[in-house]
Amino acid sequence: LYEWQAIETGTGNTMYNGQVTLGTSGSYNLTDTARGSHKTYNLNRGTSGTGTLFSGTDDIWGNGLPSNLETAGADAHYGAAETWDYYKNIHGRSGIRGDGVGAYSRVHYGNNYVNAFWSDSCFCMTYGDGTGNAKPLTSLDVAAHEMTHGVTSNTAGLVYSGESGGLNEATSDIFAAAVEFYSNTAEDPGDYLIGEKIDINGDGTPLRYMDKPSKDGASKDSWYSGIGSVDVHYSSGPANHWFYLISEGSGAKTVNGVAYNSSTSDGLPVTGIGRDKAAQIWFKALTTKFTSTTNYAAARTGTLAVAGELYGTTSAEYTAVANAWAGINVGT
Ligand code: ASN
Ligand code: ZN
Ligand code: CA
C-alpha cells in the first residue's frame, strides 16, 4: 500500500556547533526527510550545478575540521534544519514557501570564496569556504540569514535595493539572531552579532552588530533621508538596531556573556519586550503587512498595526514598537 520511511538520523561533527544530530537517509546521505527532504551537496570548489550529494558508508559526518570536506556539509545541513525548526515551531511556517518542501544547500563553492548566498532560481543556498578555504561560511547565523532571504522572497518580496533592500537584509539578520538564540548550543550561544564565528575580517570581529550597527565601520545606526542610496547591507543597520532596542531595551546589557550598549537617536529610553515578542511582531509584519516596496516609514506603520492586533494599542508592546522606531529616527 505504501512504503514506510523511517526518520533517520546521523551524527554531525561540525566546525561551529560541536556534535549535532542530522537528518539523513539511505545508507547514507544528507537528505533530511523530516524537513522537506532538504539535501546538502558538495560542489568540491565548482561554481555551478549541484556537484554531488554528500554520501558515505557510515552515518557520521565530518570531524570538526575544515580539511574534512564533510564538516562544512554537516554545518550547513544543521543550519538548514535549525532554521526549518525555528520557522515551524515558533511561527508555524513549514519551509521557506510554507508548503513543506525543502530547499537544498551547496557547500565548497569556488576557491577562497568569502561569501554565502540564497538564490530564488535554484531555491537553494550556497556557501564558500572562506579565506584559505579554512573558514567555511556555514555558521548557523549565516545559514539562517540566507534561508530567510528565501522566506522574504516568498512573502513580502521586499525589493533588494533602496530602503526595502535594507529591510530585506535586516529581516535576514533578525531571524539569523532569532535562530541562533533558538538553537543556543554551547559552542554558538545566541547573540546579536552576525558572522562572529566565520572571522571574515581576519581579526576575530563579527561582520555586523545589531546593538550599534556603526561598530562595523559602515552600517547606519539610524534612518535618515537618503539612506536608500547606501548598500543594503548597511541600510539594514537601523532596522537591526530597532530589533535590538525592542528586544533588550536601550542602555548597557550583557546577554549570554556578550556585552552590548545601545543608544537611541532621540536620547529617550526604550524598554525591551524580549526577543520572542519582537520576532513574532516582525514575522507577522513581514507576512501580513510588508510588500515589495515597504520602506522604513511603512515598516513602522506595519509593525505598529501588528502590535495593536496582537497586544492592543494601549499595551507596553505597542509603546515599545513606537519608541524603538523613534529611537532610530523613524516617525518622530
Ligand atoms: N551574503 C550576501 C547576503 O546574503 C550575499 C549578497 O550580497 N546577496 O546578503
Ligand atoms: Zn543577505
Ligand atoms: Ca551570531
Task: Give an overview in words.
- The longest helix is centred in the N-terminal third of the chain and has 23 residues, at 69-91.
- The mean pLDDT is 97.
- This protein folds into 2 domains: 9-153, Elastase, domain 1; 162-327, Orthogonal Bundle (Neutral Protease, domain 2).
- α1 (69-91) crosses α2, α2 crosses α3 (162-183) and α5 (237-248) runs antiparallel to α8 (316-327).
- The protein has 332 residues and is of the alpha/beta class.
- Helix content is 35%, strand content 16%.
- The strands form 4 sheets. Strands 3, 4, 5, 7, 8 and 9 form a 6-stranded mixed β-sheet that branches. Strands 2-1-6 form a 3-stranded mixed β-sheet, with helices on one face.
- The chain contains 8 helices and 13 strands.
- It is globular.
- The structure holds asparagine (ASN), zinc ion and calcium ion.
- Residues 145, 149, 169, 172 line the site of zinc ion.
- Zinc ion binds at residues 145, 149, 169, 172.
- Belongs to the peptidase M4 family.
- Extracellular zinc metalloprotease.
Bin the helical content: 25-40%
Contiguous uncertain segments of 5+ residues: none
CATH architecture of the largest domain: Orthogonal Bundle
Listing every helix as H and every strand as E from the N terminus to the C terminus, the arrangement reads: EEEEEEHEEEHHEEHHEEHHH
- Assess the beta-strand content as a share of residues: 15-25%
Instruction: Decide which structural class fits the backbone.
Output: alpha/beta
Named once each, the bound ligands are: asparagine, zinc ion, calcium ion
Q: Got a strand count?
A: 13
Radius of gyration: 20 Å
Instruction: Compute the average pLDDT.
Output: 97
Q: Which word captures the global form?
A: globular
N→C terminal distance: 64 Å
Count of DSSP H/I helices: 8
What profile does the largest beta sheet have? 6 strands, mixed
Instruction: Assign the CATH superfamily of the largest domain.
Output: Neutral Protease Domain 2
Number of domains: 2
The CATH C-level name of the largest domain is: Mainly Alpha
Function: Extracellular zinc metalloprotease.
Family: Belongs to the peptidase M4 family.
Protein name: Neutral metalloproteinase
Organism: Streptomyces clavifer
